[in-house]
Design brief:
Helix content: 25-40%
Number of strands: 10
Structural class: alpha/beta
CATH superfamily of one domain: P-loop containing nucleotide triphosphate hydrolases
Largest sheet: 6 strands, mixed
Number of helices: 9
Order of helices and strands: EEEHEEHEHHHEHEHEEHH
Bound molecules: adenosine-5'-triphosphate, magnesium ion
């Protein structure tokens, strides 16, 4: 994996939280271009908080986050907008607009960020739907979709601007194992064929082994990264009880 060693995201000494609640305390890591990078950790340890800081939605209490050479913490609004065009994001709670068709949901992003004519926009939307295996679904309303289809539309929407980096917050939560495996395949395909960098929050052990090049595990008590490495390295490492519980599916002990 020597060709993947250029950092596209650098997180340095990040301290983040809400008012007087520190959630992440002085954490640092790199994400390399083209890799699938997974963020793990128990509920409430700050995975979504980290993701939201990485896309510049929240300001850190301390530390720096550099994406493609631009410091997102000190970026002005024009630079942030430029950076945002390089990202695709799906939020944990992210839903589609229920009163709009699937295609109209995708159109919104292109209408916001480009001046393309509508027929071109719709061609792009349909191409993105095809990429996630939803060819011909553009006219459907969100209520007509299964949970797995909604997730895939959200990923298609995240891809409308041909992003370099896609951030996914628990994309397979609530999906059956087969649908979840299909989603994993889409991620692997996109990563390999388009060299998109993925930053994914997930709890699905099977997904982690299927897609992740590298993993970090966050810890709620220490507010630090307690483990990092490939999934195989984490499974074999013995030095942290929580990591071992997670990777060997042992019943959770109170941390
Ligand atoms: N907007 C917010 N305002 C105040 N506190 C918040 C906010 N969002 C999250 N928190 C708090 O920050 C901590 C981390 O939350 P976060 O959502 O980042 O965890 P998570 O690891 O994504 O959890 P889960 O696995 O349940 O999604 C929690 O204590 C939560 O209550
Ligand atoms: Mg979360």
């Amino acid at each position: 994996m020597a060709e993947k060693r250029t950092p596209i995201i650098e997180v340095r000494n990040l301290t983040a939280g809400y008012q007087d609640n520190i959630v992440l305390d002085d954490i640092s890591f790199d994400v390399f271009a083209g890799e699938v990078f997974v963020i793990l950790g128990g509920s409430g340890c700050g995975k979504s908080t980290l993701l939201k800081h990485m896309i510049g939605l929240y300001e850190p209490m301390a530390g720096e986050i550099t994406i493609d050479g631009i410091n997102i913490v000190s970026a002005n609004s024009k630079q942030k907008r430029q950076l945002l065009q390089k990202f695709g994001v799906t939020y944990q709670s992210g839903a589609l607009f229920g009163s709009m068709t699937v295609r109209e949901n995708l159109r919104l992003v292109l209408q916001e960020f480009t001046t393309l004519p509508l027929n071109i926009i719709d061609t792009v939307c349909d191409m993105k739907l095809k990429l996630v295996g939803l060819e011909g679904c553009g006219e459907l309303m969100p209520a007509e979709l299964s949970g797995g289809m909604v997730k895939r539309v959200a990923i298609a929407r995240a891809m409308t601007l041909d992003p370099d980096i896609i951030f996914l917050d628990e994309p397979s939560a609530g999906l059956d194992p087969i649908t979840s495996a299909q989603l994993d395949e889409s991620i692997i395909d996109l990563s390999r064929s388009l060299n998109i960098t993925f930053v994914i929050v997930t709890h699905e052990l099977a997904s982690i082994f299927a897609v992740a090049d590298r993993v970090i595990m966050l810890d709620k008590n220490t507010k630090k990264i307690i483990a990092h490495g490939s999934p195989a390295e984490l499974k074999q490492s013995n030095d942290n009880a929580f990591v071992q519980q997670f990777f060997h599916r042992k019943p959770s002990l109170e941390q």
